[in-house]
Amino acid sequence: MSHTAHIPSHRKPRRSASKLAVRAGVAGGVLSTLAMAGTASASPAEPKTESTLEMPVLDMDLAAEVSSAVTTAAENTRLAAVEGELTAQEESARTGAAAEAKQAKEEAQKAAEKKAKEEADRKAEAERATRASERTSLKTTSGSGSGSGSATAPQGTGTVTAPATGSAAAIVNFARAQVGKAYVMGGTGPSSFDCSGLVQAAYRQAGISLPRMSQAQSSAGKSVSLSALQPGDILYWGSKGSAYHVAVYVGGGKFVGAQNPSTGIVERSLNYDKPTGAVRVL
Prior knowledge:
Oligomer: single chain
Strand content: 5-15%
Strand order of the largest sheet: 3-8-4-5-6-7
Largest sheet: 6 strands, antiparallel
Radius of gyration: 64 Å
CATH class of the domain at 149-280: Alpha Beta
Helix content: 40-55%
Structural class: alpha+beta
């Protein structure tokens, strides 16, 4: 016993049996409740129902499909590359062909210009070489022609030393009367002519109709030798039937022709530009 137990104010009050019983009941209820809660919490939770999406089942070999797709893609890529290369080669070939054609054209044009220049130089040289002899011949024929009875007219720069009568005289006189006029491609007179236009117009004076082109005129009559020419014969250069130039023989070893734009219509010696052949229409 405490040393203060004999003092009433310091004594602990005694608990009655009824109060202890109530407290025991409350404690038991609490413990029972806790036990039930524990039991409830220890029991497994009811599983939740979850909804899932079912994927379609593929009835194919996916690996084989992927491999096939890769192979197809690779083949398409290869074919596209081959096609591109072929296209590039074709384009290169077209470009190369065009360049070669252009170069060939330029070379042909240069060759033609060179040939034309050489031909012009050759004719110019021949003309210079025969100019002196022509002057001498002109003086001689002029002097002898004044007393001759030949049917020629003193026109142009030359005269006909061989006799020309009838239709031949009409042809020769007309041709010589045109000397000095201009050469124009396609010209048929009266102020300008080309080679076949002059021959056609000269023969028209004799009432003879000739073809327009030199090719046809070169085969209009019978062939004659250059050593047996007569005034009015048609001289041609090139092959018979495909001649590229014609003129009128006026006698005395001379011809009148529409030569080119630089010389116009002239009277020249056969030695100036020897013809290939001759035909006689009269």
